[in-house]
Amino acid sequence: MSNANSNRYNNKFSNNPSLVLSSSKGKRRIVASGEKESSSMATEIAGVKVINNPPQSKLTDLGVTSWPKWGCPPSKFPWTYSAKETCYLLKGKVKVYPDGSNQAVEIGAGDLVEFPKGMSCTWDVSEEVDKHYKFE
């Protein structure tokens, strides 16, 4: 879909709060959302799912504030997920490099992120991280 057609399509549905079209590198998907597209956007790269600025109602439904907290200073380290992790970044900036992928996943404050079980990666923390997390 060309940018002009994509913009027309997005504009046509942007006033419908239950239907939002998002695209990422030529992939199109429809995301149900109670918020406008500009305030909450979902992407997936190398199996890592990121929702930028999820609605407060979603965070409340998940019970994010009751999850444990973890933080770290700027650093670079390898990590393997022995279970699925969902986390919500309160502050910080990170580039996550999944093993076997040529793409980095950039996450930061306000992002709700899901890492799949079994994924190995390298975390490159450029700004101190503070996050809530939950393993399943």
Structure notes:
This protein has 136 residues and is mainly beta. The chain has two domains: 1-38, no CATH class; 40-135, Sandwich (Jelly Rolls), CATH 2.60.120.10. It is 13% helix and 51% strand. It has helices spanning 3-13, 56-62, and strands spanning 20-24, 27-31, 41-45, 48-52, 69-72, 75-80, 85-98, 105-108, 111-115, 120-135. The protein is globular and about 35 Å long.
List descriptors.
single chain; 136 residues; mainly beta; Jelly Rolls; 8-stranded antiparallel beta sheet; two-stranded antiparallel ribbon; 10 strands; globular; disordered N terminus; RmlC_Cupin_sf; Putative ethanolamine utilization eutQ-like; UGlyAH_Cupin_dom; RmlC-like_jellyroll
Strand content: over 45%
Secondary structure: number of strands = 10
Uncertain segments are 1-38
- Helix-strand makeup class: mainly beta
CATH architecture of the largest domain: Sandwich
Q: CATH homologous superfamily of the largest domain?
A: Jelly Rolls
Helix content: 10-25%
Helix count equals: 2
Fold-level CATH name of the largest domain: Jelly Rolls
Output mean pLDDT. 81
Tally the structural domains. 2
Terminal CA distance reads 37 Å
Helices and strands, in order, run as HEEEEHEEEEEE
Radius of gyration: 16 Å
Largest sheet: 8 strands, antiparallel
Question: Rough shape?
Answer: globular
Name of the CATH first level of the largest domain: Mainly Beta
